[in-house]
């Protein structure tokens, strides 16, 4: 039945070339960041797929999410393939030479030993410091506008990291693959901006748009508060004029005042074994300014 299940088909060919000019085990460690780091390809693949699988009632966005999520899985394969090839010959010829050459030995000391010990010259679902990939990196809230903004951030951070990696190697084979990934991140940033604009035209720009305005404190809803030294922030778009949601007017509060009470907490009961207070201390604290009958 159409739409009843999803099947992934694997093709033997990579989406794009992933072959370095020569092995480089130290660079393989660096490349792990855009594979298994917070903004790496594993993260965006899982993030987009779960957003798509959890998408309720909108086939256009669901299909788009599954399209891009599946493509990111292809990028995972490209990076793992590249990392494995960068590790070629690392534990044998290179290390034997390193034992005789102090300079080369120092360079080899920068590689990830787990690439030998744990993964047998293969990539790992981990970042460049060896920290395992964590599903907590992913965001799939069910609110598409909130999620798409998170996706735009992920693609922005990911592209930034890939560009930095591009600049840190002269290997033309690696650069060729990275140039492809950079271009796809350009498309994906544009894609999320287009999707965000699409949703913003249908609802408020503030997430969630379904919460009643009368239930929030309107007197502070559009006030920019100066909580640091200096007033340069007063010149920003956020400090004056019509708000971005067209529902209010930005105001600049140069001297925000506390609006709450001075907090007071009653001593804990004896069985909690907090720090004991003397009778005088207890009396003084009960009589402190701002204390009320509720103890809050």
Automatic annotation (TrEMBL):
Biased composition (Polar residues): 276-296
GO molecular function, one term: metal ion binding
Residue ranges of the region described as Disordered: 273-296
Free-text comment on the cofactor: Binds 1 Ca(2+) ion per subunit. Binds 2 manganese ions per subunit.
Record-listed Mn(2+) binding positions: 41, 72, 75, 155, 188
Binding site for Ca(2+): 63, 67, 226, 228, 230
Essential cofactor(s): Ca(2+); Mn(2+)
Keyword Kinase: no
Key words, A-Z: Calcium, Manganese, Metal-binding
Phosphoprotein recorded as keyword: no
Alphabetical list of SUPFAM superfamilies matching this protein: Ferritin-like (SSF47240)
Stored Pfam families: Mn_catalase
Stated family: Belongs to the manganese catalase family.
Protein known as: Mn-containing catalase
Native source species: Salibacterium qingdaonense
Lineage of the species this protein comes from: Bacteria, Bacillati, Bacillota, Bacilli, Bacillales
């Amino acid at each position: 039945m159409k739409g009843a299940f999803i099947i992934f088909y694997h093709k033997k060919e990579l989406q794009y070339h992933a072959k370095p000019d020569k092995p480089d085990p130290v660079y393989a460690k660096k490349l792990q960041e855009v594979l298994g780091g917070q903004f790496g390809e594993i993260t965006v693949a899982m993030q987009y797929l779960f957003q798509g699988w959890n998408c309720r009632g909108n086939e256009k966005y669901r299909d788009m999410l599954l399209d891009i999520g599946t493509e990111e899985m292809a990028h995972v394969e490209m990076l793992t393939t590249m990392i494995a090839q960068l590790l070629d010959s690392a534990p044998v010829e290179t290390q034997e030479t390193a034992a005789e050459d102090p300079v080369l030995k120092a360079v080899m000391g920068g590689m990830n030993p787990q690439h030998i010990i744990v993964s047998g010259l293969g990539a790992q679902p981990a970042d460049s410091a060896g920290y395992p990939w964590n599903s907590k990196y992913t965001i799939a809230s069910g609110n598409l506008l909130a999620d798409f903004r998170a996706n735009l951030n992920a693609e922005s951070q990911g592209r930034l990291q890939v560009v930095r990696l591009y600049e840190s190697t002269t290997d033309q084979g690696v650069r060729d693959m990275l140039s492809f990934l950079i271009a796809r991140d350009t498309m994906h940033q544009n894609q999320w901006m287009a999707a965000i604009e699409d949703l913003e035209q249908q609802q408020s720009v503030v997430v969630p748009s379904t919460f009643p305005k009368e239930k929030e404190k309107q007197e502070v809803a559009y006030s920019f508060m100066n909580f640091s030294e200096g007033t340069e922030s007063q010149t920003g778009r956020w400090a004056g004029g019509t708000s971005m949601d067209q529902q209010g007017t930005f105001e600049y509060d140069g001297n925000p005042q506390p609006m709450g009470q001075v907090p007071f907490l009653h001593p804990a009961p004896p069985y909690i074994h907090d720090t004991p207070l003397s009778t005088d201390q207890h009396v003084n604290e009960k009589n402190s300014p701002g204390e009320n009958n509720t103890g809050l």
